[in-house]
Design goal:
Thrombin, subunit H
Length: 190
Amino acid sequence: MEFISAGDLNERVQAREFTYDAAADAWNWTTVWGAWVKAEQSDRSSLFSSVGIGARSVIFKMRKASRINLGLSFLWRGQFCFLTSVADTEQPGIVEVKAALCSAVNCQKDVDRSPAGCKFPGVLTEKYLGHTQETPMAVTTTTLVLVTSKPIELASGSLVEVGGKDYEVLVRHTLDAWKNEYEIRRKEDC
């Protein structure tokens, strides 16, 4: 058993909660508390999406907090950390939090029905990239997985703006208690 002492907790994370700002018609990650942690990057992929490709992972050891759950994210060294598991360790009062190092991207839902829509951050992971040669031009089809916090609901067949580009929502995966995943597609002429 690895014993964690107070001196081992030498890096700071910000725990962030997904909150809605009605005046801005936008969801955002808002810092709700901070904690000292021992952080260790891993070469293993963290599977934060059940239908997409994983991301590089980081493991945090920290004092147990009653407010910690998989609905939070961490900000660590300026990087967005999508929490994937929280588990007790053999050492009383210490938990191990696993997270995927991701980049949040700005999104807006219902761009086909509303000029303003609702803005929110999401995380993209790769699903499939295809290329079809058509006469006389080529079409590139990009299929990605958009992972969002649970409050974000997108309808199949609707459009969502991701990073300034419109994508069609193909498939919804909404059974996870903390997040939703959407397979999205964009076709572009080359």
